[in-house]
């Protein structure tokens, strides 16, 4: 049974340095095999084109407005859900191959390895987000809010992504099986689409609209529409008045739950 060695003088600065070293290791893996993130970007752009042109003339928004302008912020939020299974797979693979045991044998913080993985995936997500936003602008999406509001919207999107990544990290450390990875992939799609990403919750059956309103992805999408100056598709309900608050609160709750669980799972590897 392996044990993790922790330096008695471990500081926040040393934890940050160790996390960045792990981040660099994961980024170098992508430089050697760039096709995974490239295909991820292409897939997100393809979804925008499919839904934008397939549903563009068929969806009437409550309160009016252009559907493409409604769709883009939703697809940006949805894209933050993609790739959780890849994060999980990377952590699980490193665990099975003994990489995590080598990390655990070093005098480093228990949070450095999972945090390094989260930061690497977050940087990858930031690039994907920029590509998707650029693709949206090319097909006619526009931002009518202020530049500061747009930066806040991007921050909320990455905040959601950061929280979701910790879910993938925890599951990868806790289960480490291919069956669990498939289960996560199956779970992500209903959570992503059972939201206000593609159509407004107000147009759904009553109970389904309530569930969609309570979805963290809906909160981030609604907040981003407000900040980008795009149609909200909302005339009443929880998100009409509290989208920004919920877009901050939901990821905070997920992070508060899954960061400690991930660190605990990392420390218990091999136990």
From TrEMBL:
UniProt keywords (A-Z) are: Antibiotic resistance, Cell membrane, Membrane, Transmembrane, Transmembrane helix, Transport
**Pfam families reported for this sequence:** ABC2_membrane (PF01061)
Indicate the transmembrane segments per the record. 38-61, 67-92, 126-144, 150-173, 180-199, 243-263
Cell location: Cell membrane; Membrane
Please verify whether the record's keywords include rRNA-binding: no
Write down the PROSITE patterns for this protein, in alphabetical order.
ABC_TM2
- Say where the protein is mainly found: membrane
Q: Which InterPro entries would you find in this protein's record?
A: ABC2_TM, ABC2_TM_bact-type, ABC_2_transport, Nod_factor_ABC_transporter
The answer to whether keyword Transmembrane applies is: yes
Residue ranges annotated for the ABC transmembrane type-2 domain, each copy included: 35-269
Which membrane topology describes this protein?
Multi-pass membrane protein
In the record, the note on similarity to other proteins reads: Belongs to the ABC-2 integral membrane protein family.
The protein in question is named: Transport permease protein
Taxonomic lineage: Bacteria, Bacillati, Actinomycetota, Actinomycetes, Propionibacteriales
């Amino acid at each position: 049974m392996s044990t993790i060695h922790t330096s008695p003088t471990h500081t926040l600065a040393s934890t940050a340095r160790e996390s960045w070293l792990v981040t660099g290791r994961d980024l170098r893996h992508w430089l050697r095999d760039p096709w995974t993130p490239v295909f991820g970007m292409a897939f997100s752009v393809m979804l925008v084109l499919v839904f934008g042109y397939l549903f563009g003339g068929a969806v009437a928004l409550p309160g009016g407005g252009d559907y493409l302008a409604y769709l883009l912020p939703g697809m940006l939020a949805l894209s933050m859900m993609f790739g959780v299974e890849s994060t999980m797979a990377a952590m699980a693979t490193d665990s099975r191959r003994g990489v995590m045991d080598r990390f655990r044998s070093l005098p480093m913080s228990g949070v450095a390895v999972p945090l390094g993985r989260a930061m690497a995936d977050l940087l990858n997500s930031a690039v994907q987000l920029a590509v998707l936003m650029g693709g949206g602008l090319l097909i006619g999406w526009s931002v009518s809010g202020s530049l500061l509001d747009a930066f806040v919207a991007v921050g909320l999107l990455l905040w959601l992504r950061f929280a979701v990544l910790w879910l993938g990290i925890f599951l990868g450390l806790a289960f480490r099986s291919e069956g669990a990875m498939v289960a996560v992939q199956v779970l992500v799609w209903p959570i992503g689409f059972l939201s206000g990403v593609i159509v407004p919750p107000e147009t759904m059956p009553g109970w389904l609209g309530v569930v969609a309103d309570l979805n963290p992805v809906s909160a981030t999408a609604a907040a981003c529409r407000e900040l980008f100056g795009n149609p909200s598709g909302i005339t009443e309900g929880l998100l009409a008045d509290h989208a920004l608050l919920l877009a901050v609160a939901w990821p905070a709750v997920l992070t508060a739950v899954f960061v400690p669980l991930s660190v605990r799972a990392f420390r218990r590897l091999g136990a």
